[in-house]
Amino acid sequence: MKKKVVSTLLAVAMLATVVTGCGSSDNKATENNDTVVETADTTTADTTIADTAADAAADTAAAAADATTTTEGGLADKTVGVCIYQFNDNFMTLFRTELENYLVSQGFSKDNIKIVDGANDQATQSNQIDNFITEGVDVLIINPVNSSSAETITDKVVGADVPLVYINREPSADEQKRWVDNNWDVTYVGCDARQSGTMQGELIVDLGLEKVDLNGDGKVQYVMVEGDPENVDAQYRTEFSVKALTDAGWEVECLVDQVGNWDQAQGEQIVANALAQYGNDVEVVFCNNDAMALGAYTAIQNAGRKVNENIYLTGVDALAEALQLVIEGNMTGTVLNDHFAQSHSAADAAIGFANGDTVEKYIGCDYKKVTNENAQEVLDQVK
Ligand code: BGC
Questions:
Q1: Which CATH homologous superfamily contains domain 9-190+338-366+373-377?
Q2: What angle is formed at CA 135 by the lines to CA 131 and CA 140, rounded to 5 degrees?
Q3: Ligand 1: distance of its center to the CA of 291 in Å?
C-alpha cells in the first residue's frame, strides 16, 4: 500500500517535471520575444558560410607565411590568456584547438598562449582570470562559465586595462551596451543561435507534415533536449526550432523539455525516459547540440526505433560523429556551428587589440544547414 502511494507520487512528480519543462520553455519563448531584435536571415546563410576546414587550413598556412612580415617586433612577444568554460565539451575542444593553431599561425609563440579549464565552475574561472591579470597578459579571450557573470568579469578586466574577447556564451544586450557606451576594448565573437534553431526546425519542415506526423493526429509531438541555460544558444535554439514548425502552420505538442547540459550521457537519459514514457507518440527529437543528439541516437536505437522511418532527430554543431550518422541516415540532420570562423575571428580580434587597432564590439558568423545531401561534403571540410 505504502509502496503504491510512493510510486504514484513519483509518477506525479515525474509528470510535473515534464510538464514544467515544456511549460517553462513556452514561457521562455515569450520572454525571449521581448529581446529578439530580428530573426536571423537564414536565406543568405548557405552562401555566406565563412571559410571552414579546407579553406581554413589553407588560410592558416597562408597566414603563417604572412605572420613573419606582419608581426615584426609584435605578436611573438605578446601573451594571451584563454579561459574555456570547461575542457570536457566536444565543441569547445574543437574551438580551442583551432584557436591555438591559428594564433600560432598568426605569429604568437605557443609558449605565450595559455589555455585554462574553468571546469564548469565560475569561482575557478574567476581565479584564473585574476591570475592572468596578475601575470600581466596582453589580451584575454574568455568563454564564460556563467554569462550572467560577464558584468563582473568585464569590470575586473577593463579595470586592469586588458582587452577582452568573449567567445561562445553571449553576454546580455545590456552588458554589450556598456562596452559601446564606454568604448571599452571588449568584444563578443559568436553566431546567432536563433539562426541555428530556425535551421533545425526547417530540417523537419522540409520533410513535409505528412511524413513527420507519424501518428496522423494532425500535430507534431516532440521532445526537446536543452543545453545549459547559461548559454543563450540553448534558449534560442529551443525557441526557434519550434517556431520554424509553427511558422509553417504546423501544430505542435511538447511532450518533454529538459536540460541535458550539452552532455551526451544526459541527452541519452532524457530521451530514453521520454521514449519509455511516450513511446511511439514521440515523432521528433530536437537536441540543442550534437553531443546530446549522439546520446539521443543511442536511446532511440535501444528503444528499437529507426531514425527517418519512425522518428526524426536533429542536432547542432556538425561534429564528425553526427555527420557520419546523417550520412548513414541515422540522424535527420544537423547545423554546422563554424568553429573555424569563430576561433579565427576571436584570434583576429585579440590581435587587433594587441596591435592597438579598433575592433568591432560584436563579430558574428553564419550557421549552415546539413542534410543527407551535403553531410559528406561538410565532413570532408571539417575533418
Ligand atoms: C555548442 C555546444 C557547446 C556550447 C558550449 C554551443 O554553441 O553548440 O555544443 O556545448 O556551445 O557553451
A1: Response regulator (3.40.50.2300)
A2: 75
A3: 9
